[in-house]
Amino acid sequence: MGQQISDQTQLVLNKLPEKVAKHVTLVRESGSLTYEEFLGRVAELNDVTAKVASGQEKHLLFEVQPGSDSSAFWKVVVRVVCTKINKSSGIVEASRIMNLYQFIQLYKDITSQAAGVLAQSSTSEDPDENSSSVTSCQASLWMGRVKQLTDEEECCICMDGRADLILPCAHSFCQKCIDKW
Known about the structure:
Blueprint: H1 2-15, H2 18-32, H3 35-52, E1 58-64, H4 74-77, E2 80-86, E3 92-98, H5 100-123, H6 127-135, H7 139-151, E4 165-166, E5 172-173, H8 175-180
Antiparallel strand pairs: 1-2, 2-3, 4-5
Helix pairs in contact: 2-5, 3-5, 5-6, 5-7
Function: May be involved in spermatogenesis.
Protein name: RING finger protein 141
Keywords: Metal-binding, Zinc, Zinc-finger
């Protein structure tokens, strides 16, 4: 019986617009994610980005924001900090904070892209071909995706302004509405 429900759910998902279906899948995935699996994904993303960025000047580092995961409601309040670091100088060039939903989106994007790049680099014998593939996955491009994900948040009140503040309940508000309320 459980399989029938799953099959029916998949049929419904296949009929939804792509963006809605992706959202449903991400929400469902975040709902079943355990804390240990989440920490494993953070570590995996660090490993994957390190492998792909080997030989490059910059890399991304992911870490759970201290104290954001200490609640029983960790899925709502947890924040993941994504930092772009210049390897040679050790200087932090950019940093963004993501909620769990944004992190899962980025995790899926990076791991699927990196799997293709790493598979291609292991089968290719031409070093120039490998470097052009790895260049397409450099830290700056991925940091751009992080920025895109975090900029998509809109204010829950006016639904117009870009959210400047995300409360522990995961609702996002623009500064104008926060000042007003």
